[in-house]
């Protein structure tokens, strides 16, 4: 059946333009579009409904950022206060600390979390033997399924300054590197555990991209005398570039979205100076202290920064490599 | 083949459309009205329970309330993540007829969600038990009354609790093993702790497994029970609730100890202990359960020398409790007289439970809800809510005297048993001042171990030395300002507290730290507290 389906049909949804030869009289564009593509729309409908319901409809609550929340008057009934809450945030003594902590944590997670899966995929791809390869792949992606609470519990047990396994091993190796659960250890511990947990899972998509490389390329390269590293550099890496760029753009859209749950659980009085990020601050202000308007304003600010990063990265990628989301 | 394919595609598309339609339908259904209490004598109650507490249907006093009020109660039981659930629930305006649980609805919530809760001040005729409590225990009325005279929420009163939650313990057996005296000053404590560390105080052959001093982990939002903030009392600084947000009163002036020289001395002293390796290394990062289990150890060998806790058997376990002695407050140095010492005054939190029952303004069954509230404050029901059912957990000796029985489950301890079988301290109720109760052993133990602290507690005048936060209600605007500032203040203060103790440096950082705290709103917060305190003093005449 696949072989019989006509090629143009496959390209149609992508270009979105009707085939010129079959153009009927003008004025029936919409009806004709519906008649021709209704199956596709029907298939997309659940996703569209989902996004509309859970991403667009709740946006009307954003006005809370510009209004003073008044329970009696409802979500949209409070007094209009303009940018007061934004100014309050920018003038807050916490502002620069929050921004600095958020950027440090998210950028280091982004960089490490972006490069590690690529490296892992290249390594797994080089492993000879199906069973060994499968074992390695499974072993690296299993941690992805451990709940965050458990991960943080493990970190606290392993890194405890008095009885932690890792602290003890480090001591035996002669490193007396302070309290890993304190301020100095927070960012490395967070980033490394994050990479360890998600590296295997995130490498799956790269492995899929590598699997689609034409074996003829490898054979030709080997006949030409290319070594393992030359093959990786000239065949594997170029094959991964489009995937890498799309994932990078998507990740950039989350640049200020640090992992709230994990950071919140890892917080203690010792590391609060580096672990208080926008997300945890919004939780403490907005939910725990009932400052709904202020919390919404900070959240909106966060989203706008993320959105800007997403658009800018996308434009750069479009210029530089002609790969982009839109 | 092609035609068959087309058919199949069409069928798939139809299926997709149907699924999509179904999705939208369910989504709409979810938004439908499923709220509102039944009008036929059913009262819906949301109850905030301790994680240990069993189902409400197992409690016999629930039937007594239903009978007394002539209603059926539908319970919604919450024992985890209440803070998160609460915000969304209140913001959506969807609450059941009654919310039960100590401070489940805070004064901040009452102010923010103005109009959601029923003002009970005009319904007091229907609440004879509550009116009587207000007369007998005037503090309960002060706790309930808002600045504008409204009463949205009622406190509980349980009277038998000691005036402090934090008791001080030292391992007497270790002292005896090493031939040492009980310390009375900070310097003597330091010496004793050094001996605990350097020698095999517990006599198990390993000189390195002793933890000379350990305390309950401070959170990132202020101080609490069982923390070294009680050492402020060694310098005569009065605190309440283990320190809380740091406010206290001196000569009619509200101050915050976070920027007080005496706090600096305490932190410097704790750093000396930490630098000598006397404090548990996990003290800043462990959680409460780890702190508890470390001291209990394997049950045979004590691990901790000096610590703070509720009662010895709760802190170190029943098997080790006999090794520990309750210790009077320490003097910071010889210049402090014994008569100057203070201790954390916690009676407002322990003997009262603020905002323990709150009624919805939208209740469709107002009379029934009021009847339920009043039933909670009945003499017999109050005592059962606190300690468990009559006959099973309590024996009623005569009209005015009761005996709390030991746990029916022999493997349980009285405190655990209480929390397992009833709402305990989370429930509303009024324990009359004129009844006699043979207390359960856990409470009797706590009362007994408070004795060495009593002179110091008596030094704290609850209206002149501490900020009587429980008796003062603030406006929404001030509460918002305070909570916003607090997030900033404690973000800095608790991190410094932890860093200074573990790494030192308070001497150099102090002035900059004080300026920083004042800059993020401490000055403003102190001013707000001062204003309310002045009003409070004026109203007391």
Write structural notes for this entry.
The complex is a heterodimer of chains A (326) and B (541). Chain A is 69% helix and 0% strand. Chain A contains 14 helices and no strands. Chain B is α/β, with parallel strands linked by helices. Helices cover 43% and strands 13% of the residues of chain B. Chain B has 19 helices and 14 strands. A five-stranded mixed sheet of chain B has the order 2-1-3-11-4. Chain B has a four-stranded mixed sheet with strand order 6-9-5-10. Chain B is globular, with a radius of gyration of 27 Å. Mean pLDDT of chain B is 87; it is low at 1-39. Classes of the chains: A mainly alpha (326), B alpha/beta (541). Chains A and B meet through helix 2 and helix 13 of A and helix 1, helix 3, helix 4, helix 18 and helix 19 of B.
Topology:
The complex is a heterodimer of chains A (326) and B (541).
Chain A: H1 7-15, H2 29-56, H3 84-91, H4 95-126, H5 130-141, H6 148-159, H7 165-172, H8 183-211, H9 215-223, H10 228-252, H11 260-266, H12 272-275, H13 278-288, H14 292-321
Chain B: H1 2-30, E1 42-48, H2 60-69, E2 72-78, H3 82-92, E3 98-100, H4 107-112, H5 128-136, H6 138-144, E4 153-157, E5 167-171, H7 172-178, H8 186-198, E6 211-214, E7 247-250, E8 253-256, H9 261-275, H10 288-296, E9 304-309, H11 312-316, E10 324-326, H12 347-350, E11 352-359, H13 366-376, H14 379-387, E12 394-398, E13 401-404, H15 414-421, E14 436-438, H16 441-449, H17 454-458, H18 476-503, H19 506-540
Parallel strand pairs in B: 1-2, 1-3, 6-9, 13-14
Antiparallel strand pairs in B: 3-11, 4-11, 5-9, 5-10, 7-8, 12-13
């Amino acid at each position: 059946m696949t072989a019989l389906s006509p090629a143009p049909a496959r390209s149609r949804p992508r270009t979105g333009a009707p085939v010129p030869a079959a153009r009927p009289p003008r004025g029936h564009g919409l009806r004709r579009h519906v008649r021709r593509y209704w199956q596709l729309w029907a298939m997309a409908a659940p996703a569209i409904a989902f996004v509309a319901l859970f991403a667009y409809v709740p946006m009307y609550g954003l006005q809370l950022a510009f209004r003073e929340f008044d329970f009696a008057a409802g979500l949209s009934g409070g007094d209009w206060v303009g940018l007061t809450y934004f100014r309050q945030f920018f003038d807050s003594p916490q502002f620069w600390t929050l921004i600095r902590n958020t950027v440090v944590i998210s950028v280091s997670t982004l960089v490490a979390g972006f490069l590690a899966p690529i490296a892992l995929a290249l390594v797994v791809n080089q492993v000879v033997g199906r069973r060994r390869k499968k074992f390695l792949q499974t072993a690296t992606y299993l941690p992805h399924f451990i709940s965050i609470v458990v991960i943080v519990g493990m970190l606290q047990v392993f890194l405890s300054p008095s009885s932690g396994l890792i602290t003890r091993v480090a001591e035996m190796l002669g490193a007396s590197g302070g309290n890993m659960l304190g301020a100095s250890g927070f960012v490395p511990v967070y980033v490394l555990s994050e990479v360890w947990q998600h590296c295997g899972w995130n490498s799956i998509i790269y492995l899929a991209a590598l699997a689609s490389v034409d074996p003829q390329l490898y054979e030709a390269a080997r006949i030409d005398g290319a070594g393992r590293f030359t093959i990786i550099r000239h065949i594997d890496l170029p094959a991964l570039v489009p995937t890498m760029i799309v994932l990078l753009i998507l990740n950039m859209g989350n640049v200020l979205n640090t992992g709230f749950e994990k950071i919140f659980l890892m917080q203690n009085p010792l590391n609060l100076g580096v672990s208080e990020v926008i997300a945890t601050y919004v939780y403490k202000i907005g939910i725990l202290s009932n400052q709904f308007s202020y919390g919404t304003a900070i959240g909106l600010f966060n989203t706008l920064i993320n959105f800007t990063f997403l658009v800018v990265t996308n434009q750069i990628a479009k210029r530089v490599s002609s790969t982009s989301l839109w | 083949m092609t035609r068959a394919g087309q058919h199949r595609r069409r069928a798939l598309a139809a299926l997709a459309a149907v699924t999509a339609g179904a999705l939208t339908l369910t989504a709409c259904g979810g938004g439908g009205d499923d709220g509102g209490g039944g009008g036929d004598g059913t009262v819906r109650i949301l109850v905030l329970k301790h994680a240990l507490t069993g189902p409400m249907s197992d409690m016999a006093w629930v039937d007594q309330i239903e009978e007394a009020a002539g209603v059926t109660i539908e319970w919604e039981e919450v024992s985890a993540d209440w803070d998160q659930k609460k915000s969304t629930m209140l913001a959506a305006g969807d609450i059941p007829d009654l919310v039960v649980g100590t401070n489940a609805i805070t004064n901040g919530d009452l102010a923010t969600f103005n109009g959601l809760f029923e003002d009970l001040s005009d319904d007091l005729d229907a609440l004879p038990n509550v009116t009587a409590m207000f007369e007998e225990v005037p503090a309960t009325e002060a706790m309930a009354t808002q600045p504008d005279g409204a009463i949205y929420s009622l406190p509980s009163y349980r009277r038998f609790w000691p005036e402090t939650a934090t008791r001080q313990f030292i391992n007497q057996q270790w002292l005896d093993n090493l031939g040492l005296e009980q310390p009375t000053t900070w310097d003597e404590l330091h010496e004793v702790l050094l001996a605990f560390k350097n020698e095999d105080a517990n006599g198990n052959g390993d000189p390195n497994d002793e933890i000379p001093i350990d305390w309950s982990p401070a959170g990132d939002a202020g101080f609490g029970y069982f923390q070294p903030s009680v050492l402020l009392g060694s310098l005569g600084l009065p605190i309440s609730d283990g320190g809380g947000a740091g406010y206290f009163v001196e000569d009619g002036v509200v101050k915050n100890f976070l920027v007080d020289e005496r706090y600096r001395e305490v932190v410097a002293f704790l750093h000396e202990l930490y630098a000598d390796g006397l404090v548990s290394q996990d003290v800043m990062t462990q959680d409460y359960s780890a702190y508890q289990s470390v001291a209990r150890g394997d049950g045979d060998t004590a691990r901790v020398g000096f610590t703070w806790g509720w009662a010895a058997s709760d802190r170190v376990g029943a098997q080790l409790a006999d090794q520990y002695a309750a210790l009077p407050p320490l003097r910071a140095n010889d210049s402090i007289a014994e008569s100057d010492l203070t201790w954390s005054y916690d009676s407002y939190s322990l003997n009262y439970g603020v905002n323990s029952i709150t009624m919805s303004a939208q209740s469709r069954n107002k009379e029934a809800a009021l009847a339920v509230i009043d039933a909670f404050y009945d003499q017999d029901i109050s005592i059962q809510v606190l300690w468990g059912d009559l006959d099973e957990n309590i024996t009623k000796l005569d009209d005015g005297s009761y005996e709390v029985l030991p746990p029916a489950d022999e493997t349980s301890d009285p405190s655990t048993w209480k929390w397992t079988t009833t709402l305990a301290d989370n429930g509303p109720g009024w324990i009359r001042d004129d009844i006699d109760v043979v207390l359960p052993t856990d409470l009797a133990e706590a009362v007994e171990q408070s004795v060495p602290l009593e002179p110091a507690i008596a030094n704290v005048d609850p209206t002149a030395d501490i900020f009587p936060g429980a008796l003062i209600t603030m406006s929404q605007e001030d509460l918002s300002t305070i909570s916003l500032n607090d997030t900033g203040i404690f973000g800095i203060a608790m991190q410094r507290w932890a860093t200074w103790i573990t790494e030192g440096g308070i001497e150099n950082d102090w002035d900059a730290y004080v300026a920083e705290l004042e800059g993020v709103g401490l000055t403003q917060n102190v001013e707000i507290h001062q204003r309310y305190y002045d009003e409070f003093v004026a109203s007391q005449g």
